[in-house]
From TrEMBL:
<keyword id="KW-0408">Iron</keyword>
<keyword id="KW-0479">Metal-binding</keyword>
<keyword id="KW-0411">Iron-sulfur</keyword>
<keyword id="KW-0004">4Fe-4S</keyword>
<feature type="binding site">
    <location>
        <position position="51"/>
    </location>
    <ligand>
        <name>[4Fe-4S] cluster</name>
    </ligand>
</feature>
<dbReference type="InterPro" id="IPR024924">
    <property type="entry name" value="7-CO-7-deazaguanine_synth-like"/>
</dbReference>
<comment type="pathway">
    <text>Purine metabolism; 7-cyano-7-deazaguanine biosynthesis.</text>
</comment>
<feature type="binding site">
    <location>
        <position position="44"/>
    </location>
    <ligand>
        <name>[4Fe-4S] cluster</name>
    </ligand>
</feature>
<dbReference type="InterPro" id="IPR007197">
    <property type="entry name" value="rSAM"/>
</dbReference>
<feature type="binding site">
    <location>
        <position position="210"/>
    </location>
    <ligand>
        <name>substrate</name>
    </ligand>
</feature>
<feature type="binding site">
    <location>
        <position position="40"/>
    </location>
    <ligand>
        <name>substrate</name>
    </ligand>
</feature>
<feature type="binding site">
    <location>
        <position position="86"/>
    </location>
    <ligand>
        <name>S-adenosyl-L-methionine</name>
    </ligand>
</feature>
<keyword id="KW-0456">Lyase</keyword>
<feature type="binding site">
    <location>
        <begin position="127"/>
        <end position="129"/>
    </location>
    <ligand>
        <name>S-adenosyl-L-methionine</name>
    </ligand>
</feature>
<protein>
    <recommendedName>
        <fullName>7-carboxy-7-deazaguanine synthase</fullName>
        <ecNumber>4.3.99.3</ecNumber>
    </recommendedName>
</protein>
<feature type="domain" description="Radical SAM core">
    <location>
        <begin position="31"/>
        <end position="210"/>
    </location>
</feature>
<keyword id="KW-0671">Queuosine biosynthesis</keyword>
């Protein structure tokens, strides 16, 4: 395949830069505790300084992989597939989600929502970032809003984001991992005072699973 041919397939979403795929338990948010197959797509330029997968950022480090292979592998493991990254919406997600749905699998996404929406999602987890705000489309699509709390300013940011999602969107505050001891007591107080919010923890890190 020439470079140009490969780029055309990437543009169409037939090839995606796959960093890793693994079967585990969804650790975060509404579906925490549910067995799921994770597909981690490389590439992200949002630049969160506390990102826990910085190795995902450069797309050229991750091999362009056929979505047929990704979906066939996924079907061997689980009926719930979580597509994450990196930032999956930097790529065209339609071919991948079409294949997953043809197989009767549930498609979940973890996204910052900073890029155009593509793909068909049964569950849309939006985690807004100050550096690159979500699109209006992403706010409308969100089933859960998961705001990361690194410092006190993040409570205000979280409220601003919550004002933009649908009324039935489930609202979560999740401590940034390195600040969890400092921020968790503040999150607890905040949620008790503002019970429209729920706490989300990265439970997979406590369980020592991927
Ligand atoms: C690694 S990101 C990939 C998907 C997408 N780029 C996003 O940010 O939503 C997956 C989830 O992990 C969260 N996350 C990343 N680093 C974290 C950290 N250090 N502590 C807590 N949550 C973190 C993100 O906010 C997001 O909800
Ligand atoms: N177990 C587990 N649950 C997760 N929920 C969201 C994750 C992500 O990195 O997107 C993640 C992850 O990396 N592992
Ligand atoms: S948007 Fe997601 S993958 Fe990108 S830097 Fe932020 S947390 Fe990491
Ligand atoms: Mg993670």
């Amino acid at each position: 395949m020439t470079r140009r041919e490969r780029q055309a397939l990437i543009d169409k979403g037939e090839l995606l830069p796959l960093m890793e795929a693994f079967y585990t338990i969804q650790g975060e948010g509404y579906h925490k505790g549910t067995a799921a197959y994770f597909v981690r797509i490389g590439g992200c330029d949002v630049g969160c300084h506390w990102c826990d997968v910085k190795e995902s950022w450069l797309p050229e480090l991750h091999p362009p992989t056929k979505v047929d292979k990704i979906s066939n592998d996924a079907a061997q493991y689980s009926d719930t597939i979580v597509v994450t990254g990196g930032e999956p919406l930097m790529w065209n997600m339609k071919p991948l989600t079409d294949l997953l749905k043809e197989k009767g699998l549930k498609t979940h996404i973890e996204t910052s929502g900073a890029y155009n929406l593509s793909g068909e999602w049964d569950w849309f987890c939006l985690s807004p970032k100050k550096n690159k705000l979500p699109t209006n489309e992403a706010f409308k699509a969100a089933h859960e809003l998961k705001c990361i709390v690194y410092n006190n300013d993040d409570f205000k940011f979280a409220e601003e984001q919550a004002a933009k999602v649908n009324e039935d969107c489930i609202l979560y505050l999740q401590p940034e991992w390195s600040k969890r001891d400092k921020m968790m007591p503040k999150i607890v107080d905040y949620v008790m005072a503002n019970p429209k919010w729920k706490v989300s923890l990265q439970t997979h890190k406590y369980l020592n699973i991927p």
